[in-house]
Amino acid sequence: MNPICDLYSIEYPLIMGAVSALPGLGIAVSEAGGLGTIAAAGATPDQLRERIRAFRAATNRPFAVNFPIALMPPDQLEAKVALCIEERVEAVITSAGSPRVATARLKAAGIRVAHVVATTSHAEKAAEAGVDAVIAEPVESGGYRGNDEVSMMVLIPSIRRALPGMPLVAAGAVADGHGIAAVFALGADGIQLGTRLIATVESELPAHYQKLILAANDTATASAEGRIRPRVAKPEFAEAVLGEVKRIQMGQVAALITDVAPAAEVIRRMFQESAEVAARTSNALGVFAPAVRA
Ligand SMILES: Cc1cc2nc3c(=O)[nH]c(=O)nc-3n(C[C@H](O)[C@H](O)[C@H](O)COP(=O)(O)O)c2cc1C
């Protein structure tokens, strides 16, 4: 019924962004019916194996391991790809690099592979590399975008036109049911949430992340300098809230987040609200359909 739910055997078309190296938040997301994620960049291979096993011990629901390719030395990436194959991980998400590096090997081992992109041409390259899904990360998101600053409003429809049959996930800029309804209207099949899931009871990040997210307004973040350019809290904003400058990665959507709640509650209420918003939008726009006006 939904290509992302079908691909991963999950109840909600929701992927957790790679915001936690520990398994706890991911377990909560998977238990709630989404796809939990373990961020693998910082872990040693032994730590990653332990965390995969801890995830498995806590739930039999599926989950993903995330590899931001540009942030991992090649030998580490190689060791962790081999480990995911050995451990028979269900899904891997690659980002910040070429989709050709690991996709074929992972897919040959029966692992579902999605790649994160910030432009339509990168989405086409991911499709050529054989990925099962594309995760589109626009300028608003808390993720890695390089120099391209394509907005959600253009990125999703543009990839949808280029790759009509590709399962497509909108990453970022979503924190409520309005956001879900909007990205589905643009052509997405699912969402990947980063910043919203940091503002949950199960978050494993230091407390100052939540403090900044709750304090943020719509001008609190900016694209970081450097090669992969994640979105971060502006230094002056971090200093005003925390009393010191810290480089904290977070999406523009922090402006819309006003509470910390259990992940399952966040997910349930977002999808409930999205159905209500979609129905209201359908009513509001239905009156302009030619068949109704005639
Ligand atoms: C603190 C933080 C760390 C992240 N680390 C990774 C990572 O290791 N790999 C990756 O592909 N994306 C990473 N992301 C991006 C998320 O996976 C996700 O796509 C993004 O946060 C979505 O945008 P949003 O924060 O506006 O929801 C990170 C995001 C944040 C906020």
Structural class: alpha/beta
- Cα(first) to Cα(last) distance is 33 Å
Can you tell me the CATH architecture? Alpha-Beta Barrel
Placed side by side, the strands forming the largest sheet appear as: 1-8-7-6-5-4-3-2
Summarize the structure in words.
- The protein has 294 residues and is an alpha/beta fold.
- It has one domain (3-273): Aldolase class I (TIM Barrel, Alpha-Beta Barrel), CATH 3.20.20.70.
- It contains 13 helices and ten strands.
- It has helices spanning 3-8, 24-31, 45-58, 74-86, 103-108, 120-129, 152-162, 177-186, 195-198, 207-215, 235-242, 263-286, 290-293; strands at 14-16, 36-39, 63-68, 91-95, 112-117, 133-136, 168-171, 190-193, 221-223, 231-233.
- The longest helix is centred in the C-terminal third of the chain and has 24 residues, at 263-286.
- It is globular, with a radius of gyration of 19 Å.
- The model has no long low-confidence stretch (mean pLDDT 96).
- Residues 17-19, 39, 41, 66, 68, 95, 116, 137, 141-143, 171-173, 192-196, 249-251, 253 line the site of flavin mononucleotide.
- Flavin mononucleotide binds next to strand 3, strand 8 and helix 9.
Topology:
Elements: H1 3-8, E1 14-16, H2 24-31, E2 36-39, H3 45-58, E3 63-68, H4 74-86, E4 91-95, H5 103-108, E5 112-117, H6 120-129, E6 133-136, H7 152-162, E7 168-171, H8 177-186, E8 190-193, H9 195-198, H10 207-215, E9 221-223, E10 231-233, H11 235-242, H12 263-286, H13 290-293
Parallel strand pairs: 1-8, 2-3, 3-4, 4-5, 5-6, 6-7, 7-8
Antiparallel strand pairs: 9-10
Helix pairs in contact: 6-7, 8-12, 10-11
Bound molecules: flavin mononucleotide.
